[in-house]
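Quick one:
INPUT:
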């Protein structure tokens, strides 16, 4: 059973940065595709980014250039570096491993 725990969320001003982390326990993530997904208030889930087993990386088109996903298999961790944050980035951010495992989410609020 894989458990995922996100951290790094918080309140940040527009234009600021945050780095989210998602640490896994119970199993290695090295063979899994890893994803970040977000849910904004009143909206559905939105896929943010993915990193494959071999390091292939994908972003939602609107986020490319501001967000950077990375993984550290030795630490069983996936990261999301978020720069130039906008109020519309306010959401709960979830990490996902494969198709079955989700974290509990971390709140990101972008506000002046």
């Amino acid at each position: 059973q894989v458990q995922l725990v996100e951290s790094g969320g918080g309140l940040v001003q527009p234009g600021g940065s945050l780095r989210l982390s998602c640490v896994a326990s119970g199993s290695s993530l090295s063979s899994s595709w890893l994803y970040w997904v977000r849910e904004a208030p009143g909206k559905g889930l939105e896929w943010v980014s993915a990193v494959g087993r071999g390091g292939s990386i994908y972003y939602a088109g609107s986020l490319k250039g501001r967000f950077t996903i990375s993984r550290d298999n030795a630490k069983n961790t996936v990261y999301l570096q978020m720069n130039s944050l906008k109020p519309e980035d306010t959401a709960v951010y979830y990490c996902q491993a494969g198709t079955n495992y989700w974290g509990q989410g971390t709140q990101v609020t972008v506000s002046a």
